[in-house]
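ok trying again, last paste got cut off:
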Amino acid sequence: MNKPMRRPENKNNIKCASAYQNCGGLYVSNASPCCESGYLCNRKSPSYHQCIPEKAFDIVEDNCADEYEPCGGYLYPDAKDCCVSGSTCTYIDDGISQCIPNGEEVQEKCAKVYERCNVGDSPKCCEAGSKCVKFNDYYQQCIPDFVDV
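nice, full thing came through this time. structure:
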């Protein structure tokens, strides 16, 4: 993965892309050339760029999994083997170990694919083969791992 980049200031007042939206790529001619404040444009591939939180840049640099992401297990052979500061890689079962925030108890049941996750009283994790994706401050959903969001 390439390092996230800060796009030049938008002098024409074009609306910048919001969180996790497309901000460029070879086949995306209509993408905004910038990201809203607090986000950087991450070049996931030559054809797809996405706005990610600036704070995630440190996670990319440290190469550690974020809170509630997998950090081991046979279902996640490519999982990062460390967790961001403030969370611990916790064994859930042979299939998954997960980064759990320090002081939080492991939740027994994870949300199924396409169910809400990590908001209010919804499960904080997703079942194996899916990840919790934040769409806005009020809605997060378990999306299959193979879907690039």
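cool. The two ends are 15 Å apart (CA to CA). Residues 1-62 form one domain.
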